[in-house]
Design goal:
The complex is a heterodimer of chains A (188) and B (151). Chain A is mainly α and 188 residues long. Chain A is built from nine helices and no strands. Chain A has a domain of 80 residues. Chain A is globular and about 50 Å long. Chain B folds into two domains: 71 residues; 59 residues, no CATH class. Classes of the chains: A mainly alpha (188), B mainly alpha (151).
C-alpha cells in the first residue's frame, strides 16, 4: 500500500511539471501569460466549488461558519498571492532556461525554505533545528541545481529536431512564432 | 539574465513555504482542507482578473483574440485540474506515508518529468539533452531532498 502511495506522490510531482508545461502552451496560443495563469486558477476553482458542497454533504468537511471566517486574519488569505506568483513564474521562466533548470532551482528553494521554516518555527510549526545532516542536504540541493543549469548547451540542430520530435502540430509552432514576439515586450 | 531567472526560480520555491504556511492557518481555523484550497484559488483568481485587465490596459499583454478555444487543444486548458491534484495530494498523502516520503517522491517526479521534457524536446522550444553533469545534478538534488526530509 505504501508503495502505491509513493507512486501517487511521484505522479503528483509529474503533474506539477505538466501543469507548468500545459499552461505554457496556453500562453503560447493566447500570447498572454496572465490569461494562461487565470485559466489555471479558474479551472481549479470550478472543481473546488463542486467539491466544497460535496465534501460537506458527505460529512467529511463541514462548511466553515461565519464566526470561523471572521476569526481569520487578513494575511491568512494571501496564499493565493504566492500561488499566483508560482503559476506565473512557471509559465514565464521555463521557456527562458528550460524545465530542468527551472524546477531544479525551484525545488532547491522550496526545500531550503522548509529547512528555514522548521528552524524558526514559522507560523507555529514545530521547531526543528538545522542539524549537520540537514545543512549537508541544503548544500547538495544547491550544488545539484547548479549542475543542472549550465546555459546555452543546446545546438540549433537539436532545436530543429525538437520541432520534429515534439507532439506539437505545425499550426502550434506557427502560433508560437506569432505569440512569443508579442509577449516579448512585457517580459523585459 | 540567465542568473536572474535562476534566482527568481529559487525565490519562487522559497515562497511556496509561505503559501503552504498561510493556507495551513485557514485550514486550522476552519477545519476544512477543501475550503483552505478554495480560498487559495479564489484569491488567486480575483488577483489575476485584476492583473489581466491592468496589463491589457497598459498594452503589455493584450486580451486573447476571439476563436482561441477553437485554435487550442482541450488539454491546453487542463492546468487548473493538474494544479489541484498537487493541492489535494498535499492534504491527503503525507498522513498516509509521512512528509519525508511524500516530498522525496514528489521532487523525484517533478525532476524526472522536467528533465525528460527538456531531453525529448516535448512542449519546449529548445532541446536540452541529459548528459553526465545534468544526471549528476539531479542525483545530488534527490540525495539532498532525502537527507533533509529524513533528518
Amino acid at each position: 500500500m505504501s508503495l502505491l502511495f509513493s507512486m501517487i506522490s511521484f505522479l503528483t510531482g509529474a503533474a506539477v511539471t505538466m501543469q507548468s508545461a500545459v499552461n505554457g502552451r496556453l500562453r503560447a496560443a493566447s500570447g498572454n501569460p496572465v490569461f494562461a495563469s487565470l485559466f489555471s486558477f479558474l479551472g481549479g476553482m470550478v472543481l473546488l466549488v463542486v467539491m466544497l458542497p460535496l465534501a460537506s454533504a458527505l460529512g467529511i468537511y463541514p462548511l466553515p461558519s461565519w464566526d470561523m471566517l471572521l476569526s481569520t486574519k487578513w494575511w491568512m488569505w494571501t496564499g493565493g498571492v504566492f500561488g499566483t506568483a508560482l503559476v506565473f513564474c512557471s509559465i514565464l521562466i521555463p521557456p527562458k532556461i528550460g524545465f530542468g533548470a527551472y524546477f531544479s532551482m525551484m525545488v532547491a528553494g522550496q526545500l531550503t525554505g522548509s529547512v528555514l521554516a522548521d528552524a524558526t518555527g514559522f507560523l507555529g510549526s514545530q521547531v526543528h533545528p538545522v542539524s549537520p545532516l540537514r545543512l549537508l542536504g541544503v548544500i547538495l540541493l544547491i550544488a545539484g541545481a547548479v549542475l543542472v543549469q549550465r546555459p546555452g548547451r543546446s545546438s540549433d540542430a537539436d532545436a530543429a529536431a525538437a520541432g520534429m520530435d515534439a507532439p506539437v502540430s505545425d499550426a502550434d509552432i506557427a502560433e508560437n512564432a506569432k505569440a512569443v514576439p508579442q509577449a516579448k515586450g512585457g517580459d523585459a | 539574465m540567465y542568473a536572474i531567472y535562476a534566482l527568481i526560480s529559487f525565490l519562487v520555491g522559497v515562497a511556496t513555504n509561505v503559501q503552504s504556511g498561510v493556507n495551513g492557518q485557514i485550514r486550522l481555523l476552519t477545519g476544512n482542507a477543501v475550503f483552505a484550497s478554495f480560498a487559495n484559488f479564489m484569491v488567486g483568481t480575483i488577483l489575476l482578473v485584476m492583473l489581466l485587465i491592468l496589463f491589457a490596459g497598459l498594452g503589455i499583454w493584450s486580451m486573447p483574440e476571439r476563436g482561441l478555444l477553437s485554435r487550442t487543444r482541450w488539454w491546453t486548458w487542463m492546468g487548473g485540474p493538474l494544479g489541484l491534484i498537487y493541492v489535494m495530494a498535499l492534504v491527503l498523502l503525507p498522513p498516509l506515508i509521512g512528509y519525508a516520503a511524500f516530498f522525496s517522491m514528489l521532487v523525484a517526479g517533478q525532476l524526472f518529468l522536467s528533465v525528460t521534457l527538456d531531453h525529448k524536446g516535448w512542449l519546449v522550444e529548445r532541446i536540452r539533452r541529459v548528459d553526465k553533469v545534468r544526471a549528476a545534478g539531479v542525483l545530488l538534488l534527490l540525495v539532498g531532498a532525502v537527507l533533509i526530509q529524513n533528518s
